[in-house]
Amino acid sequence: MMTSKWISVISIFCLTTVLLAACGSNESKPDNDRSAASDVHKSTAGKQEVLIDASFPKYNNLDELENRANLIIEGRVLSSTFKFLNVAERPSQPGDDQLNPGTTPADSPPIPYTIYDVEVQKVYKGAVTEKETIQVKQVGGENQQTIFKVNDTSELKEEGDYIMFLATFDNSPASLLNPIQGSYELVNNQIIASDKNLIKLEINDLKQLTE
Amino acid sequence: MKIRFMKLVISSLILLPLVLGLSLKVNAELTDIGSPTPGINVKSPDHLNDTWKTPINNAITAWNGTATKVTIGYSSASSNTITAAQYSDTWYGLNTQWRSPYKYTIQLNARTITRDAKNFSNFVKGTAVHEFGHCFFLKDNPNTTLPSIMKYSNDFNTVTTPRPYDIDDVNSVY
What we know:
The complex is a heterodimer. By secondary structure, chain A is α+β, with helices and mostly antiparallel strands.
């Protein structure tokens, strides 16, 4: 009686393990058949999907973020537009083979960007003024035909308020230092970091920048 | 007889999860777009100077030398490209992949790489190896304590080749 009871318990345990393993192994493999299809794959919205993976510098602490950014603001996202941009610059310092790989802007394919109009609420670092509207760009977005999905990113939301750590450029909208650590959401005067951002930020930290 | 049979069944049921557990050693975190075949081509980056071309070649050699089925070859007829320029943005590298028909474009940022590299050749090679990794379904920053060329914490000045974790993940696909 006891023996048969134990047999039942062990069998149920093993069967559950097998079923869980089967589910797990199916989820871990990509859908190669779909990728290999010769006809165009359409998302449920009828748009083609393009995947972008971007690798960014990672910052270890707030000092590194503050030192690298040439613009730190509290900003409100007013609106956004999708645009292809060619952000390759004309070669500078022609004798520097590292800085100038040998290409011209015309050689580089344009990159899909979402460009946000951001109203500056407060300035902590940099040469902009309150109530000025600046543009901030992020790789990715969508147009009528295609979704350009960026892995591992945190998109800015319209009507959202953020603390932004930005790099500025002469002939291009500003960019967040990276999509995870470059912005902090501001909700009811609380600064909220994204889940993957381990660098804590307090209002006092920002006040020290302006002192 | 019946007892022996029951013992056999129980032993098998106990051993089966152990066998499955070994096969689940690789917990691959994979993207959902990548090359449908292990062999990919790319247009040779002859438009780049040797300062860039050489470490890119070394990155391709690094992948071709792994114990996987993946290979990267140069073909003038390929629609896949790898290039470098001074881009007005903050990323080191970008890999854009189209699902079907499959193609990819890798762009390396001379602005940020030159700024942050202490060993320039290594940094270009490491960034290129990382970006090619996305072609083989490898995801950024896998949740593992093991070394991986895909991790954000990598210093490309010293980390420049696919690691065993990456090789296992690629082998889980092809």
